[in-house]
Amino acid sequence: MSDDESTMRSVHLVRTGAQQYRAENPRGGVISFGEGQDTDFTPVELLLVALGGCNAITIEALTKRAEPKRFDVAVEGQKRKDADGGSQLEDLIVTIDIAFDHDEEGKAMADRVPDAIEKSHHRLCTVSRTVERPSPVRIVQVRNSEV
Fold first, then answer.
1. Which segments of 4-144 are extended strands (E)?
2. I need a labelling partner for 3 at 20 to 30 A (CA). Which of 35, 108, 116, 145 fits?
3. What are the 10-residue block averages of pLDDT along the chain, 147 residues in total?
4. What superkingdom heads the lineage (predicted)?
C-alpha cells in the first residue's frame, strides 16, 4: 500500500447542545448534526450522504471527459431492528441519474457509466466497500477526563 492509501482519516465532534453536535475535519470543514429535532442531518442521513457521495465523486472522476447535463443521486435504506434488539440499515440502494449531451463525447461518457458504477461500487468507493465488508469498530472511553 502506498502512503496515501494507508493514511489515517479523522473528524472531531463537539457537543453543541442536547443531542446536537458539530463535526470538524482537519481542513476546517464544519457540519452540524443531531437527533433529527430540527433541519440538521441525523447520523443515519450522514451515512447515506457518505454512501451516495463517495459513489458520485468516484463515478464523476471516471466520466470526467464530458460535463454531465444532470447528475442526481438518491440513497435510501430501511432502518430495522435486528434479532438482538439493535437497529441497523438494510436494503441500501444508491440510484444514479446521470445524463450527458447527445454529442459524440457525451455518448462516449454515457456508455462508460455502467462500468464506472461497477468500479466505484466494487473497488474504488471506500464507503461502499466498508459498509459491505464491515470493519470492526472499537469505542474507547477516556477515563477521568477533566474540564
1. 12-17, 20-24, 30-34, 70-81, 87-99
2. 116
3. 70 96 96 94 96 97 93 96 91 96 94 96 93 89 76
4. Bacteria
